[in-house]
Amino acid sequence: MSSTLFRTKKVEQSILDTEEPEHALKKSLSALDLTVFGVGVIIGTGIFVLTGTVAKDNAGPATALAFVAAGIACALAALCYAEFASTVPVAGSAYTFSYASLGELPAWIIGWDLVLEFALGTAVVAVGWSGYIQSLMENAGWTMPAGLGSREGADAFGFDILAAALVLVLTGILVLGMKLSARITSLVVAIKVTVVLVVIIAGAFLINGDNYDPFIPKEKPVEAGSSLDSPLIQLMFGWAPSNFGVMGIFTAASVVFFAFIGFDVVATAAEETKNPQRDMPRGILGSLLICTTLYVLVSIVVTGMQHYSELSVDAPLADAFKATGHPWFAGFISFGAAVGLTTVCMILLLGQTRVFFAMSRDGLLPRFFSRVHPRFKTPHRPTILLGVIIAILAGFTPLTELAALVNIGTLFAFVVVAIGVIILRKSRPDLPRAFRTPWVPVIPILSVGASLWLMINLPAETWVRFAIWMAAGFLVYFLYGRTHSRLARRESGEEQPSVGGGTP
Predict the structure, then answer these.
(1) Residue 300, Cβ neighbours under 10 Å: how many?
(2) C-alpha 144: how far from its chain's center?
């Protein structure tokens, strides 16, 4: 039985399966499109919120160094993703990579994990977007009817209609085609990056050099109202460490790491890329480099505008401009955050549908969902199904307690991909690799270590919920996936392997 659980799917067969007419996605994305997707999903509320939190309670002006450290940790994982995505240019990201290197059961586990990660991520971001929009509406004198806005203070049957509507609209855009999605993403990302650049440039003229002294604070007592009370930190960790000095920089890095989450979603679009061997590494690494640079510049500016001990927790950039006599920027930053969350939501939804589609095409989920739209060449069935489910989730469900699962799911995927690179190098050294992760196995081992260390810092409740979801996944696999797997059917002779252009 163990031999069937860890049977691997050859890379060549994975690529051939993408050529079946009924299950083939349209190749329309370039390196620029992929980079835009990466920037679009990475830059969200993190850049507008986390800076103040970690500066005030961990690193002070050295928050910039924390972003660099977190960026390096992400780069370790990104290098592993880049090799896999260029070698196995198939939808599914870490799921597909695991199937080729670790085996069917590990692939199912990571696929099941990614479905949860992207679903909750999309719902959480949609709720956050709704909050920003309602705030902007209130500034303009408009108020959502009771029970149709934020669930805070609403009755038990309240429904966040804005969050649900956003998910449904983005679902429709994804059904209509990847190129349309890329164009809309490019427009929104351009607006979002413009807002960030304006904040950086305008803030640079308001820097007071005295605020950088000391650059690396040695100690600070925990005060009431500090980041220990931050809903964002409690949302992610369940606790808020408070220490300074050099260790404070590394503690801060473990917090701001989550502002980088999302670059792995780029890998899910490998099958829809015109030249994945060349463009996937460029898209993954390019988007990470751009976002790290912007994060570092923002942190330098905000800690220069206002002393780190006086930064606010919930809106440090906006409040820093208010403190320097420029309140207009507060609304401008809120607008940028609201616009930015639109692309984050859409790209997370995109990633989930591609993983679900890949699992369905492999028979681990019903193959009904693996047929593409005859005109748009998109996986419309899983996109519509998941879009509706997530819209309901975003509208009804309080997600605060579940959101940390997004973090542990992402880190788990990082671990699996890094291990997979080492294994595939040994088992298939003959594979053509357009991009090769340098210093294997050192880089993958460092990536595993960094990810595990960050996972350990998550609260116990998150691990319990993650274990429950994984247990449910094992049940589904053994009751359905193991016997319906196309790989199993091919090994038993019930189905012939694919050949170029279709299945005979």
Answers:
(1) 20
(2) 30
Tally the residues of the chain.
504
Rounded CA separation 97/91 (Å): 10
Instruction: Output the pLDDT for position 44.
Output: 79
**DSSP character at residue 273:** B
* Nearest partner of 272 among 22, 470, 30, judged by Cα: 30
State which amino acid sits at residue 474: F
Sign of CA dihedral 436, 441, 446, 449: positive
What integer is the mean pLDDT of 60-72?
91
Rounded-to-integer distance, Cα 138 and Cα 144, Å: 8
Is the distance from CB of 60 to CB of 214 less than 8 angstroms?
Answer: yes
Cis (ω within 30 of 0) for the bond into 441?
yes
Cβ-proximal residues to 328 (8 Å cutoff; 6+ apart), any chain? 321
Render pLDDT for 402-438 as a digit per residue (tens, 0 to 9): 555 677 888 888 999 999 999 999 999 999 899 999 9
C-alpha torsion sign, points 384, 385, 386, 389: positive
Question: pLDDT higher for 150 or 278?
Answer: 278
The SS3 of residue 92 is: coil
**pLDDT tens across 320-367, in order?**
888 888 888 877 887 888 888 898 899 999 999 999 999 999 999 999
Question: CA 309, CA 311: separation in Å to the nearest integer?
Answer: 6
CA angle 34, 203, 54 (to 5 degrees): 70
Other CB atoms within 10 A of residue 192 CB: 25
Q: Are the C-beta atoms of residues 227 and 251 closer than 8 Å to each other?
A: no
What is the arithmetic mean of pLDDT over 46-66? Answer: 84
Q: How confident is the model at residue 2 (pLDDT cuts 50, 70, 90)?
A: low
36-50, 104-118, 166-180, 249-263: segment of lowest average pLDDT: 249-263
Judge whether residue 312 has pLDDT over 90. Answer: no
- Nearest Cα to Cα of residue 43 among 241, 184, 185: 185
The greatest distance separating any two alpha carbons of the chain, rounded to the nearest whole angstrom, comes to: 74
Asked whether the bond before 145 is cis by omega within 30 degrees of 0, the reply is no
Q: Using a CB cutoff of 8 Å and minimum separation of 24, what contacts does 231-237 make?
A: 231/314, 231/400, 232/45, 232/49, 232/50, 232/53, 232/313, 232/314, 233/53, 235/400, 235/403, 235/404, 236/403, 236/404, 236/407, 236/458, 237/404, 237/457, 237/458, 237/459
Contact (CB, 8 A) for 114 and 399:
no
Mean pLDDT of the chain: 85
Q: Which two tokens stand for residue 343?
A: 């692309």
Residue type, 67: F
* pTM for the predicted model, two decimal places: 0.84
